[in-house]
Write a structure and sequence with these properties.
By secondary structure, the chain is mainly alpha-helical. The chain has five helices and no strands.
Length: 133
C-alpha cells in the first residue's frame, strides 16, 4: 500500500476518533463558552466528522489508484480541518478568538481539496480510457 494511502487512512481514523471524543467530552462537561457558542461547535463537529470520512476515502482511492491530485486533496483536507475546525473548537470550547481570521483559509483549503479530488478522478479516468483504447 502506498505511503500516502496509509497516512490518510491513519489520519482519517484518528480524526474520526477525535471528533467522537471531543463531542462526548463537550456533551458531558459544563462549559460556559460552549453554551454561548454551540452553533460554532456544531458546525465544527459536522465538518470534522464529514472530512474524517473523506480522508478515509482519499486513502482508499490512493491505495487503489495513486495520483498526485489525490495526495494534494488529502493534505488540503487535513489543512482545512486544522484551520477551519480547529478554530471553531478554539472559539466555542475555550473562548479563544485570536485566530478567527484563519477560518476562511480552512474553508478555502477544503474547497481546494474537493477540487483536487475531482481533478484526480477526471485525470485517472481519462488515463484509464486512453490506455484501454
Amino acid at each position: 500500500m502506498p505511503i500516502h494511502a496509509r497516512i490518510f487512512l491513519v489520519i482519517g481514523a484518528l480524526s474520526a476518533f477525535l471528533s467522537v471524543l471531543i463531542g462526548a467530552v463537550a456533551a458531558h462537561l459544563p462549559n460556559e463558552h460552549l453554551a454561548v457558542a454551540v452553533q460554532w461547535f456544531d458546525t465544527g463537529m459536522q465538518y470534522h466528522q464529514f472530512h474524517s470520512l473523506a480522508l478515509l476515502i482519499v486513502g482508499l482511492v490512493i491505495a487503489y489508484r495513486p495520483s498526485r491530485w489525490f495526495v494534494a486533496a488529502g493534505w488540503l483536507m487535513v489543512l482545512g480541518t486544522v484551520l477551519f475546525v480547529g478554530n471553531l473548537y478554539l472559539r466555542s470550547l475555550f473562548g479563544i478568538h485570536d485566530l478567527h481570521a484563519l477560518t476562511p483559509y480552512g474553508g478555502w483549503a477544503y474547497l481546494a481539496g474537493w477540487l483536487a479530488l475531482a481533478i484526480g478522478v477526471a485525470t485517472v479516468a481519462r488515463k484509464s480510457a486512453t490506455a484501454s483504447e
